[in-house]
Amino acid sequence: MTERDPQTRAVHPPVPVPAGSRPLGVPIYQGHLFGFESADALAAAFQGPDEAFFYSRMGNPTVRALEEALADLEGGARALATASGMGAINAVLTGLLRSGDHVIAQASLYGGTHALLNDLADRWGVEVTRVGGDDPAEVRDALRPHTRLLYLETISNPTTHVTDVPALTAALAGSGVLTAVDNTFSPLLFAPLAHGADIVLHSTTKYIGGHGDILGGAAVFADAAVHRRVWEHSVELGSTADPFAAWLAVRGLATLPMRIARQSATARDLAGRLAAHPSVTRVHYPGVPDHPQHDLAERLLPYGHGGVLSFELAGGRDAGRVFTEAVRLISLGPSLGDVASLVMHPASTSHRQLDAAALAAAGIGEGTVRLSVGLEAPDDLWADIEEALAKAV
Ligand SMILES: *Cc1c(COP(=O)(O)O)cnc(C)c1O
């Protein structure tokens, strides 16, 4: 056989398949396509997510590693990893709902989810009833013949409201309504599927990735048939996770238990110090005894209450803004769950569209500051907070 031209050989380098050993870490399969020996084998691959990998929008070994890890950790049958948390939420909502369906949703939800539900109501004819998240009777009363989904968040932002997931799912037992729970604030701390939920959602951008270097999301399903419906829809949406981002999320999982435990402990410590400070009128953290759902939080989240807390400054709106600009070690930024601590003033940023009455209804004060606690030494964080508090009064 004649030697092929270097131009051809450059396009077809050898692809070694390890023999005699195996990689101990998850390899990054960055390529989006896979080759086959026969046309029949390729045809079979088109049949669904359990067949051979063939094109990464439908499935990829690195993305699958993340999906299997999350399905295992959440106690689910299957998982779907997506390009962002909103990608997972969108795949689930638009994959399972149709015009005329009814959703019961917690009133206080992540802003993007809130906007998506409004959009589904305005443009797609999905009916949405908002409930508080504390009262099973309110959920039972909201049930209609065409209700398909109950949508909750374990811990909501920035008030750290803890939702009674087992009581609310029990209120709909036997109705056939699926419950989806956004567990972004409490991965490993709470397992919604063990408490009656059917679908768990994560923004892996936050605690699971943990290092501020990816966007990603995932949905974990108790029932493989529900996964299959959402998987088919996600293939149409194109909301699939990128392999490298999925790989970083898998790597993040290895240190998640230690990070979330440390972040929870530091948040508890700072919540106590903040509560005793004269410039702070109120602290919201499920781990402090005067939190409205403290007992529920102790029962549902025995290993810690997460790394997000918020507190209200006596000086109101101006004090909130000045505080978030005065911190030096802590960064002013919108995300959470990072190894580095972050603060934000919701009234002037994430919740700026709400007027005073709407803010009050959402339980957010003009001077509320949200703090996402990182892995810094607690005393260094407190020194930064104390200095910024002195400037903010
Ligand atoms: C950030 C976040 C999302 C959205 O995740 P993205 O990865 O930014 O798309 C959804 N839910 C909660 C609770 C979040 O904090």
Automatic annotation (TrEMBL):
Cofactor(s) listed in the protein's UniProt record: pyridoxal 5'-phosphate
Matches recorded under PROSITE patterns: CYS_MET_METAB_PP
SUPFAM superfamilies: PLP-dependent transferases
Keyword field contains Lyase: yes
Keywords: Lyase, Pyridoxal phosphate
Family: Belongs to the trans-sulfuration enzymes family.
A Pfam family per the record: Cys_Met_Meta_PP
Molecular function GO labels: methionine gamma-lyase activity
Organism: Actinomadura algeriensis
Name of the protein this chain belongs to: Methionine-gamma-lyase
Enzyme Commission code(s) on record: 4.4.1.11
Keyword Lyase part of the UniProt annotation: yes
